[in-house]
Amino acid sequence: MDSVIKALVVYFVLWLVIRATGRRTLGQLTVFDFILFLIIGGAASRALMAQDYSLTHAFLVIATFVVVDVAVSLLERDVPQLAHVLKGVPTVVVENGHALSTRLRRARISEDDVLEAARRAHGLERIDEIKFAIFEASGHISIIPKRNIAASENGSASAEN
Amino acid sequence: MRKRHNRNYPVLENMRLQNAFWASERATWIVLAVILLIALSGVLAHGPLSERTVTDGGLSLTYERFQRATALARFNARILVSYGDEASLTLSAPFADSFQIADIEPRPLRSSAGPQGLEFVFQAPTTGELSVVLWAHPRSFGRFNLSAAAGPEGRVAFSILVYP
After folding, report:
1. What's the pLDDT tens digit per position in B5-19?
2. What is the ipTM of this complex?
3. What is this structure's pTM?
4. Nearest by CB to A100, which of B1, B25, B32?
5. Torsion, Cα of B59, B91, B161, B74 (10° steps)
6. Which of B18, B24, B32 sits opposite A91 (nearest CB)?
7. In chain A, which segments carry CATH 3.30.240.20?
8. pLDDT tens digit string along B112-131?
9. Does domain A91-160 have CATH number 3.30.240.20?
10. Which residues have a Cβ under 8 Å from the Cβ of B110 and sit 6 or more positions away?
11. How far apart are the CA of A106 and the nearest CA of chain B, in angstroms?
């Protein structure tokens, strides 16, 4: 019984802590973030397995995590409001070439992060070339370039073809 | 721009919810920081507020009043030996039930377990005070009311809160 309860508590605490670190960490893992998550995983697994390395205990812990994860995903599918709470909602951070500084600050992302995403996705150089930048619930930044830039991109792509 | 202004294009926003997320994120950071400060103080075991000494007659026991389940904790009993060449330390029966003794220094000459608990008999030192260090880990979590005795004169009662 304690195997299941421990796993449930650890699942909830991990979810809370990872949500508290914000989407920034989820979407843009730096090397340090990666190490941090490894340490969190190691600490959690030690707490879960403490003094009981039996196959039964390991199976119960894994089964609990899988069942809870599937249950949460089913809930997210059937109750969209809950999905918004559990996964988060997308937020526009650049609109018509203007960075929405309050939102960027509160989301703990910088204009440089947005520009990096814009360079990667569309080869854009400046904020004013971006029509919309959206900070997604997954933690990634989606870039929608202004129409004339998008059209010229398509033009050059078809010329290459 | 108003913070709570929702955009419907290119994505459907819910800024009320998003602002609540940001607020809860900040609240969680504060809670985690407070937990760290509490941990540094020793309230979550292994720190200055955790260590406590109780004394009665010829027995003085230093222990951690906050401990963690299965984590090793140190108990130090100082026993004043006024006569004889042996000294005894008795730990109450609940101690034997709730704690697993990992090590004890110095080694006792003999030990016994009975309804009154665990009794250890040591060789008395020449200086008159015997210092016994005992390492034990709690088997489970909860509050444990325990007692220790050194002969008929020194008897201390102490309570330990063990975190999961």
Report:
1. 788 888 888 888 889
2. 0.73
3. 0.75
4. B1
5. 70
6. B18
7. 91-160
8. 998 889 999 999 888 788 99
9. yes
10. B120, B121
11. 7
